[in-house]
Amino acid sequence: MTRPTRNRIAARGALFVLAALLAASGLIRLGQGPAQAVAREFSHLEMPEPAAQPSCAPTDDSALGAILSKLQDRERAVAETEQRQKHDAQTLAVAREEIQDQLHALAEAEESLRSTLALAETAAEDDLSRLTTVYENMKPKDAAALFEQMAPEFAAGFFGRMRPDTAAQIMAALSPASAYSISVILAGRNAGVPSQ
Fold this sequence. Notes:
The protein is mainly α and 196 residues long. Helix content is 82%, strand content 0%. The chain is rod-shaped, with a radius of gyration of 61 Å. The mean pLDDT is 83.
């Protein structure tokens, strides 16, 4: 390429850059123009105040006092509730302790009653065994005279405990009516017991 051609290309490039800068400047001004015109047009109108944003800091002392008073009332109510709950818990603890003491005393009384009943039952059994031995050691005729005076159910209880040979001797000495009554009671004593 020759020198004049290079100069032309350089001149064209410079012109192109200059034209682009002028066009950009015009566009910027053109863009600002309508925006400024609109702003001037509406500038005489009053804009509404923006809605008041709630503020964290109260502006009124009475509002602050009311909030503080409510918080204090709430704090008192919570303290009273806590106090009641503590009192209720203490009352329940005392009641549980008393119930445990009563259950322990009841268990001791039950054990004592069992011992007393066992002792009474043993004593009664001992007394019956001793009395049965006394009747067995008597002469059959003398024992029969006593059994004649007893109710047949009572006499049958002793006959059921005696040795069979001694019971047979006493039964032989009884009147036939007494011997029969005692025999019926002895025979029917276990009739109601289930066999299976």
